[in-house]
Design goal:
single chain, alpha/beta, Rossmann fold, 8-stranded mixed β-sheet, 8 strands, globular, binds NADP nicotinamide-adenine-dinucleotide phosphate
């Protein structure tokens, strides 16, 4: 038995780094997708993979490197994310800021899945790190670009889940809760560990045929 192989994007800090660390601890072969490899503090047992998810050329290069080094992928955690409009107002939302947010939070995860699904087989898992801010059933007025990008990411999840069901690859969205990271800020009630637990449940504990859902702490979240 060879160790399962996982790619975690946005693993330089915050939730991505914690998820990468914990998967390596569990015996996974972990690739940490980071856009500035030199700036990352090394993690024991974790390989660094240069990857800017907003750049199609970077995605293609990362997929080629992963294929050459390992030949397959078992788990993709689309974690990289940005929030550029914390105090934003949808009535004055800058279209360029929305474009940048969608490129990282929504289109990047889709492109990465497109590039890496050929390396995945039945039992594979794609975990899209979304946010309660993307729930349509709980209307948000904060950070409109961010929240819209996560709603759209949830749509990516559903589309991919349907497309990959026949191949036995599970695709789900997860909310880590409001977590103390650079993005979440110091006022957030949850620790890094609690946020990572919510994400890791889909990698380590959820039934392999559970697909097309939105989850927090192992419980379904309304869209
Ligand atoms: N924290 C919360 O309360 C919370 C709540 C709900 C959902 N989330 C989601 O959880 C995920 C992780 O958030 P976090 O709180 O850990 O944020 P964070 O501490 O700000 O870390 C964000 C990570 O994403 C990376 N990143 C940003 N743009 C990238 C790009 N174009 N290509 C590759 N990597 C990129 C950053 O890399 P650099 O170091 O290079 O900038 C960093 O590693 C995000 O998707 C976020 O939306 C967080």
């Amino acid at each position: 038995m060879t160790a399962p192989i996982a790619l975690v994007t946005g693993a330089s800090r915050g939730l991505g780094r914690e998820v990468a660390r914990r998967l390596a601890e569990k015996g996974y072969t972990v690739l940490a997708g980071v856009r500035t490899p030199g700036a990352m503090n090394p993690l024991p047992g974790v390989e660094v993979l240069p990857l800017d998810v907003s750049d199609p050329a970077s995605i293609a290069a990362a997929a080629a490197t992963l294929k050459a080094r390992h030949g397959r992928l078992d788990v993709l955690v689309n974690n990289a994310g940005i929030m550029l409009d914390r105090m934003g107002d949808v009535l004055t939302l800058d279209a360029a800021l929305l474009d940048r947010t969608l490129a990282t939070n929504t289109v990047g995860p889709l492109r990465l899945a497109q590039a890496l699904v050929p390396l995945m087989t039945a039992g594979g898992r794609i975990v899209n790190v979304s946010s309660g801010g993307g729930q349509l059933s709980v209307p948000s007025s904060w950070s409109p670009a961010y929240c819209m990008s996560k709603t759209a990411l949830n749509a990516v999840t559903v589309q991919l889940a349907e497309a990959l069901k026949p191949r036995g690859i599970a695709v789900n969205s997860v909310c880590p809760g409001w977590v103390r990271t650079d993005l979440g800020g110091p006022e957030a009630p949850r620790s890094l560990q609690q946020g990572a637990d919510s994400i890791l449940w889909l990698v380590l504990e959820a039934a392999p045929d559970l697909t097309g859902g939105f989850w927090r702490d192992g419980a379904p979240l309304p869209w």
